[in-house]
Write a structure and sequence with these properties.
alpha+beta; 6-stranded antiparallel beta sheet; 11 helices; 16 strands; elongated
């Protein structure tokens, strides 16, 4: 090998190494700049900015690029007045998540939309700010209003028996059972005690709109999800109707119909029955349902290209960061337990498919952070931001809002604060974000 060729190779290697080092430096600098702007774990972004209250999960001026697919409607309890007699007391303040014109149904939105005290006809008109004192005052008002810590679990009070003797299980003892499949604050409970061991031939049907589960006590006093298994005999059943979900709070009539169905089931088995008191249960469930509606928000962050990006390059970058293409047309990053952590969809809302990714270009994509399904703690939001910044640098994309304007420092700080505040609200009432109960309530 000649000396001139050797020198040329050395110089070429030095140039390549220099380019790689410069790119790494630029990416790291950009990452630090963005994270420094929105606030980190060792400082409170709220203390460094002006305030504003955020309501109903949307920041003003940040509309979705395309209307998201409709989520399940939340039906109102039209019989509410029947269980809450009118008084001379001043009317309750409209809950934060319900500041919309009264309708028979409401739709939970996937992105930030409304601001506190904002006219209903103009959800994007108010300025956005972050007032720590106002936020603390709001939380104090909500806590005083809902009184979550003082609220007791609804006590069963409607008993229907064909004789108090001869039951295999004591109904009062059954009502005190703490089973992992039920939460009496969210599930309307019914307890059925048999007089003779029963082999369950078929599963009864108690509701068509709301989920329900049936747990049975076997002859060795073990509780399990009841199934029609030959040779397995039960002493009694605990049945829970999930009264709070994205379908909305079950109405008084629906709970009474459920109770009547369970009563017919008990009569067929010549069994004893204990039901929760409907008004008592709804007094606890209503404020919890309002909280669930308020925290049921999804943060959306858009990453777009000034030109376009090939689908193959996009897929390679996402899979390189741990995302997997799912049959729902979105990429998901899963936890070790197999639950979706973050999601990515096309910026125009169209589904990703292997064939489209291999043949067409994209303007960009949107990253989704579901407040209720991501485990609590700012480290997960920091990770969400890290991935966004990394993908932005790798693919040459811009972080923008729905108006295609660069994300502001205030927006980033506000989102981080909003996420942590909503997750704290959930934890105060026993709903751990990303936990089993949250998966039931927000799926």
């Amino acid at each position: 090998m000649s000396t001139s060729l050797l020198i040329f190779l050395v110089l070429a290697a030095a140039v390549i190494a220099g380019v790689i080092a410069y790119n790494m430096y630029q990416e790291n600098k950009y990452r630090q700049q963005v994270r420094a702007q929105f606030g980190h774990s060792d400082k409170d972004a709220l203390l460094e900015s002006n305030t504003q209250s955020v309501r109903d999960g949307r920041l003003p001026g940040h509309q979705p690029v395309k209307e998201a697919p409709a989520k399940p409607l939340r039906s109102k309890d039209v019989s509410e007045s029947a269980v809450q007699p009118k008084t001379d007391a001043p009317p309750r303040r409209t809950p934060a998540a319900a500041a919309v014109p009264k309708k028979t149904a409401r739709l939970r939105q996937p992105v930030f939309d409304k601001v506190d005290d904002e006219p209903e006809e103009d959800p994007f008109g108010a300025a956005f700010s972050l007032d720590l004192d106002a936020e603390l005052e709001r939380e104090a008002r909500e806590k005083a209003r809902f009184q979550f810590e003082e609220t007791q679990v609804p006590v069963p009070s409607q008993t229907k028996l064909k004789g108090n003797k001869g039951l295999l299980l004591d109904l009062d003892d059954m009502s005190k059972q703490q089973l992992p499949w039920f939460d009496p604050n969210f599930d309307y409970m019914a307890y059925v005690s048999l007089k003779e061991p029963l082999e369950l031939n078929t599963l009864p049907r108690f509701s068509s709109r709301h989920r329900f589960q049936i747990a049975g006590c076997t002859m060795d006093d073990r509780w399990q999800i009841a199934e029609p298994i030959p040779g397995v005999y039960y002493q009694g059943f605990i049945i829970g109707l999930q009264a709070i979900s994205r379908n909305g709070l079950a109405t008084t009539q629906e709970l009474e119909n459920f109770g009547n169905s369970v009563n017919q089931f008990a009569e067929q088995l010549d069994a004893g029955l204990l039901l929760m008191d409907v008004p008592t249960f709804l007094n606890v469930a209503r404020p919890l349902d309002e909280l669930c509606e308020r925290v049921d928000q999804t943060i959306t962050m858009h990453l777009v290209s000034r030109a376009s990006i090939s689908g193959m390059e996009l897929r390679a970058a996402l899979e390189g960061n741990g995302f997997q293409l799912h049959h729902d047309g979105a990429f998901h990053l899963f936890t070790d337990g197999g639950e979706p952590l973050f999601s990515i969809i096309a910026v125009d809302g169209s589904p990703f498919t292997p064939s489209l990714l291999s043949s067409q270009a994209y303007k960009g994509f949107s990253m989704l952070f579901d407040i209720t399904r991501v485990p609590p703690g700012e480290k997960y939001f920091n990770r969400f931001m890290d991935i966004a910044v990394k993908l932005s640098g790798t693919l040459g994309l811009d972080l923008v809002d729905s108006n295609m304007e660069e994300l502001s420092t205030e927006w980033l700080k506000g989102v981080r604060s909003f996420v942590l505040a909503r997750q704290d609200e959930m934890k105060k009432v026993g709903i751990v974000p990303g936990g089993d109960l949250a998966a039931r309530l927000f799926s």
